[in-house]
Specification:
alpha/beta, Dihydrodipicolinate Reductase, domain 2, 2 domains, seven-stranded parallel beta sheet, five-stranded mixed beta sheet, 33% helix, elongated, binds NADPH dihydro-nicotinamide-adenine-dinucleotide phosphate, binds the ligand O=C(O)C1=N[C@H](C(=O)O)C[C@H](O)C1, lysine biosynthesis, DapB_N, amino-acid biosynthesis, NAD(P)-bd_dom_sf, NAD binding
Length: 278
């Protein structure tokens, strides 16, 4: 889906969190494509250029977004920072009329409301995971959940030891998918300890943090003397970066509103039947 090369001018994207694991990956992925170019990149702490792109001070970002960047305002923002930062960038995008893609996870309820408020003014696309395989996993999970009434469900995610939020944003999206389909599952149990059997209505949620694991999500269904495990493993962060840039290309010029990665895949003709990305 990357690098169509069809358009004359590349989409000019802004990147926030440019010094982070994902921000660096987005800048490097953009360098290898001809349909996008990084117009401006910022990071909270000062850092050296990333893949030849100068990284500016985050405090200057509202002005850069409003048009002080070389060649004027960017066409879209790609954000991988943290929840509070992403909310403030959504507000800046709404003020400047710039569409926003955010892959940031770990939002609390009120912060999601703030993102939604920004989407009244500009297109906002939030996705907990920009891997196409995760969209396929979520579709498979919904089908399995519908086909296996009464089966126990346990979700396990594994990430690198630098990840802050737990469970992962993707895990929360998958839990929402299962709960949409299985009305009887209404109690998330985070880890297990003590002395009691599993109760009906529970979904077990397990978060592991170890080494440099990019990101793994596994959903176990068990019952009727059988079990199924559905698993996605991200091979590297380029998978997420490519998906985020595909989303940026897709969102430019859209009407204000709330979008998810399924909308982007839908436009490509292979929409995942998921419950969106709350
Ligand atoms: N949706 C998806 O597909 C994916 C989502 N993610 C999510 O993306 C987010 C970032 O992950 P990751 O890159 O690993 O995290 P990192 O901690 O490696 O990077 C975050 C970066 O954001 C910077 N930052 C924080 N606040 C601001 C700000 N206000 N302005 C500019 N820069 C800022 C940090 O700078 P400093 O170091 O100076 O604080 C840091 O460089 C997480 O929420 C993660 O869960 C990750 C992978 C895929
Ligand atoms: O922090 C990460 O690394 C990742 N975060 C996302 C999440 O929280 O689901 C997506 C991916 O799993 C990597």
């Amino acid at each position: 889906m990357s690098g169509t090369g069809a358009s004359a001018e590349p989409l000019r994207v802004a990147v926030t969190g440019a010094g982070g694991r994902m921000g660096r990956e987005v800048i490097e992925a953009a360098r290898d494509r001809d349909d996008v170019a990084v117009a401006v990149a910022v990071n909270r702490s000062p850092i050296d250029p990333v893949a030849g792109v100068e990284v500016r001070d985050a405090d200057d970002f509202p002005e850069l977004l409003a048009g002080d960047a070389p060649d004027g305002a960017p066409d879209a923002l790609v954000d991988f920072t943290g929840p509070a930062s992403a909310v403030s960038y959504a507000e800046a995008c709404a003020d400047a009329g710039v569409p926003m893609i955010t892959g940031t996870t770990g939002f609390a309820g009120g912060q999601i409301d703030s993102l939604h408020a920004a989407s009244d003014a500009v297109p906002v696309l939030k996705a907990s995971n920009f891997a196409r395989g995760v969209a396929a996993l979520r579709r498979a999970v919904r089908e399995a959940a519908a086909a296996l009434p009464g089966y126990d469900v346990e979700l396990t995610e594994t990430h690198h030891n630098g990840k802050r939020d737990a469970p992962s944003g993707t895990a929360k999206s998958i839990l929402g998918d299962v709960e949409d389909v299985r009305d009887d599952l209404d109690k998330r149990v985070y880890g297990r300890e003590g002395d009691a059997p599993r109760e009906s209505g529970e979904i077990g949620v397990h978060a592991r943090r170890a080494g440099d694991v990019t990101g793994e999500h596994e959903v176990l269904f068990a019952g009727n003397r059988e079990s199924i495990e559905l698993t996605h493993r991200a091979g590297d962060r380029g998978v997420f970066a490519e998906g985020a840039l595909d989303a940026a290309v897709w969102i430019a010029g859209r009407d204000p509103g709330w979008y998810d990665f399924g909308d982007v895949l839908d436009a490509g003709g292979d929409a995942p039947d998921t419950g969106g990305d709350a």
